[in-house]
Amino acid sequence: MLILALAMIRAFGEEDLEELLDVWYRASLIAHSFLSQEFLTVERREIADVWLPMAETMVYEADGRVVGFLALIGKEVGAVFVDPGYQGRGIGRSLMDRARESRPFLELDVFEANAAGRGFYDAYGFELADRHIHEASGQPELRLRLG
């Protein structure tokens, strides 16, 4: 694992919004390539206007910028994304470890077609709890649980 100079996990601040949304978008283009551009555009607005205000969000800052984030709503991992240029360096695991420290168990939904995300969650130890259809996209999703 590469060590990142001057890296830290800290609480999200409003000044991080654009960098966080850029990380989400770049990572989504890869992990969610099966979703339409229209869907991603709407989702980007929803993240900023609806989800972030209700979430406890932490960012991973490296090289003076936000390169990853994790958003929690109670026991729910609403999002964990790492900039594609920084993936494979343990950032997602570090964020998940921090979330795990503060919750007795975690749950999340992942698109069945998101092979990279499913691989990450499997390696972390999440287990399948349920399958359903994501209403807004019509895509199959897996409900996973850890703990």
Give the topology, please.
Blueprint (H helix, E strand, L loop, with lengths): L7 E4 L5 H15 L5 H18 L1 E7 L2 E9 L2 E7 L8 H11 L4 E6 L3 H10 L2 E7 L6 E7 L1
Helix pairs in contact: 1-2
How would you characterize the overall build of this protein?
With 147 residues, the protein is of the alpha+beta class. It has a single domain (8-146), classed as Aminopeptidase (3-Layer(aba) Sandwich), CATH 3.40.630. Helix content is 37%, strand content 32%. It contains 4 helices and 7 strands; from the N terminus they run βααβββαβαββ. Strand 6 and strand 7 (140-146) form a beta hairpin. Helix 1 (17-31) packs across helix 2. The longest helix is centred in the first third of the chain and has 18 residues, at 37-54. The radius of gyration is 14 Å and the shape is globular. The two termini are 26 Å apart.
Features:
147 residues; alpha+beta; Aminopeptidase; four-stranded antiparallel beta sheet; three-stranded antiparallel beta sheet; globular
Question: What is the CATH domain class?
Answer: Alpha Beta
- What is the terminal separation in angstroms? 26 Å
User: What's the pLDDT, averaged over the residues?
Assistant: 94
Second CATH tier, the architecture: 3-Layer(aba) Sandwich
Task: Write a brief structural summary.
The protein has 147 residues and is of the alpha+beta class. The protein is 37% helix and 32% strand. It has one domain: Aminopeptidase (3-Layer(aba) Sandwich).
